[in-house]
Write a structure and sequence with these properties.
about 120 residues
Length: about 120
């Protein structure tokens, strides 16, 4: 897999900052979990405004990610789940790949109907 770093894109900065706070949370700084949730909520607001839609694909990814960060409110599943979020976020930061985006891409509401045009000759 090729390293793809895009510091010129705001998306990359959001993911990078979130990954730093996930790491601090995993290392024991509990407020890091809540900061991740806040930044994820800010991403939802930013991308909703940017695309003027909650159904835009980029916004859907941020909504799903934010929902996953809320699992950090449960102390019993917080640590293992945030390890998975950390790995996924690092994939976005260093390889421009996102598991949530790949999953959402295959959802029925994100599939464009194929329109075939038949021409009589």
């Amino acid at each position: 897999m090729k390293v793809i770093i895009k510091p010129q894109k705001i998306d990359w900065w959001f993911w990078t900052i979130i990954s730093i706070f996930i790491l601090t949370a995993l290392l024991g700084w509990v407020p890091g979990y809540y900061i991740v949730m806040v930044i994820s909520a800010l991403q939802v607001i930013y991308f909703t405004g940017r695309h003027k839609s909650l159904t835009a694909f980029d916004t859907q990814v941020r909504i799903a990610y934010f929902a996953f960060t809320l699992l950090g409110l449960s102390q019993t599943i917080r640590f293992p789940f945030y390890i998975l979020l950390f790995i996924g976020t690092l994939m976005a930061v260093f390889f421009d790949r996102c598991g949530i985006a790949l999953a959402l891409k295959n959802m029925p509401w994100n599939k464009q109907p194929v329109i075939k045009i038949h021409r009589d000759l």
